[in-house]
């Protein structure tokens, strides 16, 4: 896109590229809302106002005031510290073989917890739950048909399907049965705070360790973060010995 000059204030140009840079500083969701003709126009007006205020400040000599100098020095100090920190952390590198070694030594961190895929029928009566189970056993209707007909859970629209879940995602009474129930079997009525459930387990997966290729980027991020943190701590320790630090 051409870097078009959109306005001039006291001889200084405000360009389309500048407007794009301002938009890029916003969170992604907000960018989509303001990156349009009206949004860019509003930002241009803000940029013009900013330049006008800058000119007024210079005219009044406020750029030489003690308050201005103090604020500039403060910002300059923060900016320099940030640049040094970024440069220090950017120097930290991790080799592919180091990432693999980290993965092999920390496989517990990449564990996929056991999970169950199940369907259920939720009703408010234990007697009705038993009747429904008997009808399913007699092949008078399928579990899915029973869920659609009797269940009070919105999952009835999907034949009672709850999808997959690991421990801690369901109420304890439900989980205790679901994780021991054989695949394909239907449980006895299970009472929870929501009512009575008939549970049918569709699939089970035991604890497993994710493969290296699957978690390579995550392992790299973890290892790099650890090394950057150590680099930071080592640098601070070195600088404390180099420069005077007094904690009063």
UniProtKB/TrEMBL annotation:
Domain PpiC: from-to ranges: 113-203
Keyword match Isomerase: yes
Keyword Cell inner membrane among record annotations: no
Enzyme Commission identifier(s): 5.2.1.8
Top enzyme category: isomerase
Molecular-function annotations in GO: peptidyl-prolyl cis-trans isomerase activity
PROSITE patterns per record: PPIC_PPIASE_1 (PS01096), PPIC_PPIASE_2 (PS50198)
InterPro entries: PPIase_dom_sf, PPIase_PpiC, PPIase_PpiC_CS, PrsA_foldase, Trigger_fact/SurA_dom_sf
Keywords: Isomerase, Rotamase
Protein name as annotated: Foldase protein prsA 3
Organism expressing this protein natively: Sarcina ventriculi (Clostridium ventriculi)
Phylogenetic lineage: Bacteria, Bacillati, Bacillota, Clostridia, Eubacteriales
